[in-house]
Amino acid sequence: MKKNVTFKFVKTIPDSLDSGIVYITTYYNTAVHKCMCGCGNEVVTPLSPSDWELTYNGEQISLYPSIGNWSFECQSHYWIKNNKVIWAEKWSKRQIKARRRKQSRERSSKSCTKSKPVLFWNKLISYFTF
Length: 130
Fold this sequence. Notes:
Distance between the termini: 52 Å
Number of helices: 2
Order of helices and strands: EEEEEEEEHH
Radius of gyration: 16 Å
Strand order of the largest sheet: 1-2-3-4
């Protein structure tokens, strides 16, 4: 079980992931890492208002909310805060099911009420495109 992580900003996610490294691609708005329990499963965390939020302070990263790998055999559950892995309690099947329902409702309501933000780079590209 990992206690700390490092990170790499990359254009695309590499084919082979190193343990303990969170690979971040702002191009695809995604962070990917191997499960921190050591099982070797690949954990994909999409970065969006309805998924995960990445905070980078110039030296450290944090992901919010927690990462619950409910589909994996390990069912690990942890936070990544300031490059540290903070282990959370194991959830019951009932808790997992309730959380999934809640997330589904939240995602549905967010997608209905929010329009897709226009990114700075998209504005810049469209400015120079004729």
